[in-house]
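Handout for the seminar on molecular recognition.
Each group receives one record of this type.
Step one: identify the two inputs.
Step two: read the structure output and locate the region that could contact N-(iminomethyl)-L-glutamic acid.
Step three: write two sentences on what you found, then compare them with the reference statements printed after the record.
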Amino acid sequence: MSELLIHDLAEVATPKGTSHRRGAAQGAVERLNGVDVVCRGGRIVFVGSPEERRRQLGELPGVPRLDGSGRCLVPGFVDCHTHLPWAGTREHEFSDRLAGKTYQEIAAAGGGILSTVRSTRAASEDELVANTRARLARMLEWGTTTAEVKSGYGLELEAELKQLRAARRAAADQPVEVVTTLLAAHEFPPEHRADAAAREAWVREICERITPAAAEHGLATFCDVFCERGVFEVDQARRVLEAGRRHGLVPRLHADEFADSGGAELAAELGAASADHVLAVSEAGVEAMARAGVAAVLLPGVSFFLRKPHYAPARRFVEAGVPVVLATDCNPGSSHTESLPMILWLGIFRLGLSIEESLTAVTLNAASVLGQGRRLGSLEVGKDADAVLLDGPNLDHLGYHFGVNPVVAVVKAGSVVHRRP
Ligand code: NIG
Ligand code: FE
């Protein structure tokens, strides 16, 4: 059975528990000094002083070691919202935005999501596998040990399944654990934009053909929809997510990104695993999410990358008792980054979260959105041994030293899978 001893750590910083931490508990991070961590069979079997470790487990001769070198160990980061399997780039749109055009103007002119749909449809499955694998490798370098990956750039049956298969294949033989989401309801494809009847036909195609096919082939765990005025209206989003649920897919939503569209309330009504973006959420939406226990997945990379002054009301969510999560939204149009530390810095510098709240947001709370809070998201005996060794003697350095990669080593399921060169 594989074993690993992580020793000479200055600090182990971790949220604790098996599900979302909310309200004041979001910032309740345990910080232990001078402890060893022992992993066996992929799990954490010991966290405690070296003396106690020697008493319980002995010297552990021959067991592989990771020298903590006076640094800080945190749980492996969980990126619970990404769009990885795409082809093509959109740097020309990025330049147009720098010149003053808005994201919506670019989309209305045929760019935006539909531009990536064209290049993703044209790409082979192998090409999508290679692109996704390269992005997962970059995520790992920045500390991500588990990632959710969405379809949504195929927007036709075969192309959506191609994206999901590519995500699953890219996950094989590399360390980052991948969870997949069907997002056929990301946009209305070119063939279904002419009028209300054409749009209705696309909603039916998703509910009656694409969702059952994705489920039947076991290609997705979650279903998702872009619920926004002018895209999927609330009643269409509800039908898409109910169809998903009938086929065993857990609902999530892109909700209230540009305008309050009732998406947060729909997430609450359906008991969705999360409502994501929620930048323009109403007060009623926040309260409904709090009552229903729906997590808010905040994606501040989007405001940053689109150069918008507004960010999601993170402090209001914490105050209302809504579990707050941070994710990259890694995609070619609105947030082109694989780096969760970058998003964590935005959480601190733009959303007003504390370093502890931000850590919980990218670990235990993100794992809980993916339904994996019992197994992932904290450094506790019994959990999977997923951990990141950070440069710096304590958690504070993760916020304090920004803009540089803080990751010295990454452990997945008890094995060292990345070391800083
Ligand atoms: O989550 N909101 C919609 N979808 C993506 C953007 C995708 C794109 O621009 O390609 C998002 O931000
Ligand atoms: Fe997204």
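Reference statements: Residues 81, 83, 254, 329 surround fe (iii) ion (ligand 2) (CB under 6 Å). The chain is about 40% helix and 20% strand.
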